[in-house]
Design brief:
Number of helices: 2
Oligomer: single chain
Structural class: mainly beta
Number of domains: 2
Length: 304
């Protein structure tokens, strides 16, 4: 009996030795990858916005102050800003501005009342985005920002199709969706975008309508209380048989919302919008907007 037990023990012992030998051989054959170096810089900055009360999120301008460069969000709210070799001269902190004229971002900051409001800071080192620094994570993303609507701007006309020489009746309304009073400065007090209503399509120069005063002409300065709206109606003559090309246009009217970034008339930011905005690809929305906004001004069609 004892002899039989010893035999079983010897067999088990041999099996254990074989298993141990196989494990040793396996460890010798296994290739161990060297530890990955942590990436410190990236040639691009990415992020996303969610725009309150909208079904698609294009048309928000993402602008890097001082670098004077911007992109628009796409229909999903995503954006990417690329840095190139020509940016290698930059090694400093930059402010990132998120802008729609009718929206705020709750965590916006500003250095003083005359400066641009910004929502994030980034660091460039020799033109490359430094990762895991300031408001940029280890993958080169700024966290998603939610843009909160402060005013709803909308309008309508008496019909859709017009010919040159027709009279168009246009109504515009601004509704205050914020919890504060909104101060509107109308064009008769020197509005920044002109004194007249206009037809706009980015393929052409903005076309001024004949009427001298836009819908918001009854008062110079208007305070719109929270939850209230201001509305005006005007009739304009569509003229210009040689210069007005048959196509679809947006009917718009100029006014200022006091305190908005767009009011910085002499700033690089304002000039960037005036000179560059119509050149930027802006997602799914028709390119019928004069500057970054989610206004619901009416579309009309000029026919022969």
């Amino acid at each position: 009996m004892l002899k039989h037990i010893r035999s079983i023990f010897n067999v088990l012992h041999c099996i254990l030795i074989i298993i141990a030998s196989l494990l040793v051989l396996s460890c010798k054959d296994k290739i161990v990858d060297p530890p990955q170096e942590k990436q410190l810089y990236s040639p691009m900055l990415r992020g996303k916005v969610i725009i309150e009360n909208q079904t698609e999120y294009s048309n928000a301008l993402i602008y890097i102050d001082s670098l004077n460069r911007g992109v628009s969000t796409d229909s999903s709210g995503n954006f990417t800003i690329y840095f190139s070799e020509k940016d290698s001269v930059y090694s400093e902190v930059f402010k990132v501005v998120y802008f729609l004229n009718d929206y705020d971002i709750p965590d916006e900051k500003f250095d003083n009342k005359f400066s641009l409001r910004y929502s994030a800071k980034i660091m460039l080192v020799k033109g490359k985005l430094k990762l895991d620094t300031l408001d940029v994570d280890s993958e080169g993303n700024i966290k998603t920002k939610v843009m909160k609507q402060i005013v709803r701007v909308e309008g309508w006309t008496d019909k859709y199709e017009y010919r040159v020489g027709d009279t168009i009746t246009f109504t515009a309304r601004v509704t205050n969706l914020s919890d504060r009073t909104i101060h509107i400065v109308t064009t008769i007090c020197g509005g920044s975008l002109g004194r007249n209503d206009f037809l706009y399509n980015d393929k052409y120069i903005a076309f001024r309508l004949n009427g001298y005063l836009p819908p918001f002409n009854a008062e110079c300065n208007i305070d719109v209380q929270s939850g209230q709206y201001y509305e005006g109606t005007v009739s304009d003559l569509i003229f210009g048989s040689q210069s007005l090309i048959p196509d679809e246009y947006i009917v718009a009217t100029p006014f200022q919302i006091e305190g908005r970034t767009l009011n910085h008339l002499e700033s690089k930011f304002y000039k960037y919008i005036v000179e560059e905005w119509d050149k930027i690809h802006r997602g799914a929305s028709p390119k019928l907007d004069l500057f970054p906004n989610k206004y619901k001004f009416p579309h009309i069609k000029i026919i022969k």
